[in-house]
Amino acid sequence: MQGSTLDSTQPPHPVPAAESHADLRVWGLLTFLASESLMFGGFFAAYLVLRGGAAEWPPAGTEVELLLPTLNTLVLVSSSFVIHLGDTAIKQNNVAGLRKWYILTALMGSIFLIGQIYEYLTLGYGLTSNIFSNCFYLMTGFHGLHVFVGLLLILGVLWRSRQTGHYSDAQHVGVEMAEIYWHFVDIIWIVLFTLLYILTVF
Amino acid sequence: METQIISNTTSPTSTATEHPAAWKWYDYFRFNVDHKVIGIQYLVTSFVFYLIGGLMAMALRTELYTPDPDVLNPNLYNAFMTNHGTIMIFLWIVPAAIGGFGNYLIPLMIGARDMAFPKLNAIAFWLNPPAGALLLASFLFGGSQSGWTAYPPLSLITANTAQTLWILSIVLVGTSSILGSVNFVVTILKMKVPSMQWSQLPLFCWAILATSVLALLSTPVLAAGLVLLLFDINFGTSFFKPDAGGNVVLYQHLFWFYSHPAVYLMILPIFGIMSEVIPPHARKPIFGYKAIAYSSLAICIVGLFVWVHHMFTSGTPPWMRVFFTVSTLIVAVPTGVKIFGWVATLWGGKIRFTSAMLFALGLLSMFVIGGLGGVTLGTAPFDLHVHDTYYVVGHFHYVLFGGSVFGIYAGIYHWFPKMTGRMMNERLGQLHFVLTFIGTHLTFLPMHKLGLQGMPRRVAMYDPQFVNLNHLCTVGAFVLGISVLPFFINAVWSWIAGAKAPDNPWNALTLEWTTSSPPPVENWEVLPVVTHGPYDYGMGYGVSHDSNPDANDSSDDSSAPPASNPILALD
Amino acid sequence: MKQIPASILTLLAGIVITLVSLWVGQHHGLLPEQASEQAPLVDRFFSVMVTIGTALFLVVQGALIIFIIKFRRRSGDETDGLPIEGSIPLEILWTAVPAIIVIGLGIYSVDVYAQMGGFAPAGGMVAHHHTRPHHWFTPDAVAASLEPNSGLMAAPATLAKYGIGAAAGQTDSADLTVNVTGLQYAWLFNYPDSGIVSGELHVPLGQSVQLNFTAQDVIHSFWIPQFRLKQDVIPGENTELHFVATKVGTYPVVCAELCGGYHGSMRTQIIVHNPDEFAVWLQQNQIASHA
Predict the structure, then answer these.
(1) What is the pTM of this model?
(2) Which of A99, B160, C29, C160 has the fewest CB within 10 Å, making it most exposed?
């Protein structure tokens, strides 16, 4: 929003305090994520319908692996707590703490993505093998894309935090937004993991 | 969203004045974050697509003048039919009603200097031109031919490249719609001027709020369905291929979960426009402000649970057919509340038959027909007969043309002076109204009987017994085609050389009329203070006193200081 | 001129509107002839809706026109209208009346739907929603269905889940079963009991007929306007229609779901015979198809 013609300019006369509106980006992000969650909702609903119509789910030969994804899940879920420590740090004006925890979150996110790619390479079936694998790759892939975007956001925060005073206890909306987005990605994964892994095993 | 997240916070202390006092003509062709520029960009762009979609419709009606497929190749017919629907919905009504009027008016109506996220707003608009280009480019590959519904398996086996472009186009406008809706929700909820109570929020804002919530909740589900379709066409998956475990009815659910609410996306903002246009031109307060505001929210909520009425003849079990019959019928109640409220608003008024008011009254009349037809279609036993027939085509054109397009016209005549600083010609406006009114009935009324008698929709060839009524429809379509000419001439001529508009030509009481016509870049020098409700006509506001003394002159008073016209301020 | 009280005028208008609506409801002449047992049910329901719709139409349009004339601005009048902001009793009235109407219509529509057999598609009430007969979806199975004597011919009859079943009070087993295949751009009718394959649908008058649908390529929709019946024919789903023809004659069979470039030409006809004539037709064609 900085650099936008309108925001960086104010009318020449003094602006009453009530006119400069508060930073609404967190509201915007929450609204957007409410909407985005329904796109996953669409995929989940489709998955459940297709699963309900199948005689055998997953079809023989396309069983999911459980050990690696469970470890991956643990990494991703704990990263949600780690990123919150970074947020807590900046609220105490501790930029070094913010950087430390966000770097750790980024590492955990990368581990998750690498684990996901490793899983893809070792599963032995591909996107087009059958209706289950269609769903599996589409849903995990779409989620992985979101993890990747979240990773970029975290890296963006880290990049900006190099500049002294960019984030402080008073000004850290970007930090908060990256955190909210990361929690979102995490919650979606928990649902996805339940649907795709746990419910196919039991 | 991502650029938003890593960007700076808005600096309230910045004092640089980079923008000009008024926008130049070329600013309207560039990436511009002013909500007023974006609103006009939406309106003009969507109008261009309206003309393209209209030409396609005339080609379709030309083909249907005779029972035989003698003018267009049947595949081209289907391509025109598909893209006519797609363009009119996704590139005309939705962007014009929500993007155009919503962006232009919401900040002005709530006393804000811009939308909450101006840059995001501009990005949302600029997704539309490439989406339109993709649709038009699809004709190089035969055009998508499976209807705007794109039901598989037909959409999986017909013109794959064109279908892929179609999907990408819809995903782009869907993204635009979601980003725009985020902006509207946050702007309306968080940015109204502090002196405005919720009960003083103009009804258009309530309507846009309901519309945005609906778009946010339903659009992503369509996106999910289209992504699955895209993968089925291009990447070898089989979500909708029954011989490999897929399910074709699943697509219909995902599609209609969005596309029925899409009907409300196209009509709720229009209802908002109606509530803004009728009171000032009837000189009456709106009848039942709360009922009209709440009915928008009711339509938004109930509208999420009616989608299966498009699938009564499909693979739907009896309980669904019954449940969705009842939920669909219930939508008629809040809709009726609005209609009755507007009619009652006229009672005891001093109705001025401006072009804007003519279109609003025409809409009231048309929408009653469309609404009653909709009630009949919502009942499963009757729908079994008329589903996928011309009865449906007649019905939804009464709603979408007699409703949405009439409302867009009413809005343009009403706010044109505010947007451009020029008045439109009333004579041409009346001619436009008469032609459109006659053309609409002539085109769409006979379709009801055609459907009841046995003519299915989406056909390039039909039984010779239907030829007479089809002649009427085709003649009507050409009247509608011609009816655009007086409007087009009027709009272009008035924009360049129309009479200068005073700040408040209609003596209206909503906030957008308290600033100059056209408004300055930040909308007001000093933000207005709300002292009365948006529709307090007959209470001594508007006519004898007003917060803005310049706005009090009656419309024929030429002593009002001419406002500068941004389009014409070439130097 | 003596002023007539408004209440009298309203009463008169109400009577006129009622009479006109009742007349229009009975004489709209919009629907084609009735040739199935379901048709009169649907038409009666439609007539009720037309009656109510006409009344509402007249009330709203009448009010609109009267108000437009009566409350037009007289030239030179720059004043505002009356500052009336609403009326709670009136708003309750026009919320409650439509609500009662639509609830009434809803109940009536469910009743009509039940009488049409909508709650009894074969197996619809017993089949679990999530178990679908997978073997039936394979291309081989569809191809096999085109073989008149294939063992799979009887399959859809027991597995159909969606559509219109036997009407209330009728037994589930039909007098005549026909397996219908929709393909771009034709209908094929298989008579499993006699082995006849036909491009036209022949049925006897007054006997219950069950159509079991399969789609070979894309979605089609089987519609007989004179029967007021329509059912999509969906790849991967089994659908059915159950009817009793009530009038001898030839009626169009129309595809109502976009199925490709020549969707409009995907038409055939249904011929309703007297039972004796039907027996003759059956016999002649049985000989022809076995020859």
Answers:
(1) 0.89
(2) C29
